[in-house]
Amino acid sequence: MQQFKKAYPEAHLYGLVGVPASDAAHPPRLMDVNLQQQVADLSKRLTTEFAFEGIFLDVEPVWDGDQEIATIEGVLEGHWEGLGDA
């Protein structure tokens, strides 16, 4: 990370967190409190231990009219409070 930042000081690096939202065989998962905590814990590790400047949350697939995706940001926000202070 240090070598990259030295070579490209203007670049911003974000950690990618992929979250499988649901599929035909599994119900929607985004409101699962355990999954939310796992995403929050991984996000914190990526920013504190590995020095990424932020997190890109990739939720797939998202279906038209999916109400969970509309509310997940607010739900996870509480888990992520303080990450910027690390």
Key features of this structure:
86 residues, alpha+beta, two-stranded parallel sheet, 3 helices, 2 strands, elongated
What does this entry look like structurally?
- There is one protein chain.
- This protein is α+β, with helices and mostly antiparallel strands.
- The protein is 42% helix and 16% strand.
- It has helices spanning 2-7, 33-48, 67-80; strands at residues 14-20, 54-60.
- It has a two-stranded parallel ribbon.
- β1 (14-20), α2 and β2 form a beta-alpha-beta unit.
- 7% of the residues are buried.
Order of secondary-structure elements: HEHEH
Q: Describe the sheet with the most strands.
A: 2 strands, parallel
Percentage of residues in DSSP E strands: 15-25%
Helix content: 40-55%
Helix/strand/pairing class, anyone? alpha+beta
Number of strands: 2
Count of alpha and pi helical runs? 3
Q: Separation of termini? A: 17 Å
In spatial order, strands of the major sheet run: 1-2
Mean pLDDT figure: 78
Kindly provide the radius of gyration, computed on alpha-carbon positions and rounded to a whole number of angstroms. Answer: 15 Å
Poorly predicted tracts of residues: none
Shape: elongated
Précis, in short:
The protein is α+β, with helices and mostly antiparallel strands and 86 residues long. Helices cover 42% and strands 16% of the residues.
Secondary structure layout plus pairing:
Blueprint: H1 2-7, E1 14-20, H2 33-48, E2 54-60, H3 67-80
